[in-house]
Amino acid sequence: MLKSERLSKMIELVNSEGVISANKLMQLLNVSDMTIRRDLEELDNAGKLVRVHGGAQSLNYQRIIELSHDEKKELNIREKIDAACKAAKYIKENETVFFGPGTTIEAIVDFIDVKELRIVTNSLSVFEKFQQKNAMYEIYLVGGSYRDKTRTFVGSIANEVLTNLKFDKAFIGVNGINETQVSTYNIEEGSSQKIALNNSILKIIVADHYKFDKEDFYQFYPLSDIDLIITDDGIEKDKFTKYVNLVNLK
C-alpha cells in the first residue's frame, strides 16, 4: 500500500470510529508501531485528525459524557435483564463472588437462586440490592474514595483491600468491548476491576450487545485473559461469530 493510500485509509478509519487506538490501526493496516506514530504525527500537523494518547481522534468526534447511575438504569433495560438472567445461572452454592459496579451487574442480583454465598463488591448499589434481597448471604462492601456518578468506591484504599482477596468468580461490567481490550470511562474504576479480575479464578464480563465493537477512555483488561462474556440475545450473528473465536461468548 502506498503511503498516500495508507494515510487516506487512516483518516477514513479515524472518522468512522471517532476514536481509534494506534494498536488497532497497526493491525488493520499491517504496519509497524513506528510507522503509525509517524503517520499520526503527520496527519495531526496537517489538521486531518487529532493525535491523542494511544491513538487518534476524529475532528468531528464529540466526547461521550459519562452518564449517571440513574441515567444508565433507563438504557437498554430488556437487554440488561436478558444478560443478567444468563449470568446468574453461573453462580453456585458456597462461592465467593465479586460484583463490580454497573446497572447490568446490579440486575444479576434479582436472578440469583442459591442459599449460601459470600459476596464482595465496591458498588453501593449492588450492596443495597443484596440487602433488599433479604437472603442469608455474607456481604462485604469495599470502601474507599466514593464516585457519586456510579455509586462506586475506588482508589488506593479499595485497591489495597481487593488485592488481598480471592474470588471464585468476578462479574464485571464494561463500557466497551473490542477485539483486544475491554474498557470503561474512569481510570480508578477500571483499576479496581482489573485487580478483582486478576484475583478471580473465573473472569466474566457481563454486557449488553451495544457494548461490542466500542471503546471508552480507559482500556483496563485484555480480552484474551477473559474467560467468558455474557450478553443478550440481540447480538448480531456476524459479531457473535467474530468474538466467539476470541473468548467464550454466551
UniProtKB/TrEMBL annotation:
GO MF term set: DNA binding; DNA-binding transcription factor activity
Q: Does the keyword DNA-binding feature in the UniProt annotation?
A: yes
Highest taxon, organism lineage: Bacteria
Q: Which UniProt keywords apply?
A: DNA-binding, Repressor, Transcription, Transcription regulation
Question: What would be one Pfam family of this protein?
Answer: HTH_DeoR
Q: Where is the HTH deoR-type domain?
A: 3-58
Name the UniProt record assigns to this protein:
Lactose phosphotransferase system repressor
Where does this protein come from, organism-wise? Vagococcus lutrae
